[in-house]
Amino acid sequence: MEDRKPVAAPHPAQDVTEHVGYRLKRAHAALRAAMDGALREHGLTVPQYSCLELLDLRPGLSNAELARGAFVTRQSMNVVLRGLQDAGLIARPATADHGRARPARLTAEGQRRLDAARSAVYAVEARMIDAVPRPRLAALLVDLERMAGALGG
Hints:
By secondary structure, the protein is mainly alpha-helical. About 60% of the residues lie in helices and about 5% in strands. It has helices at about 20-40, 45-55, 65-70, 75-85, 110-130, 135-150, and strands spanning about 90, 105.
């Protein structure tokens, strides 16, 4: 067996569980599980909720724009949009005015469901950020944004 040279960690850590990436993934998994539970009571999935939030913010977004904003593939967003449309939560034209884009908009029922689900999601986020001392929250948000930017996101 060849001599293996250890690879230096990017920061002091005893093991992988102390790495920033591991901790971010753990926080993401906990957030996702909590959101799944909160949204289940409203008959929504996380991608569906994300899509409704994006459409509330910017009505008329295309499938590709929604997919980017919800961190899913365009194919997955097609399934999400179909489900939301079948449930009467969004409306899209039957045909595209130009190209293949069929801009989506919230229906009144979609707005109602989003408003109800939003309070549940915000309660989850409040539980999460309550664990961070208030004076450090703004810096944490800036740091997370910088980390994403450093990786091209």
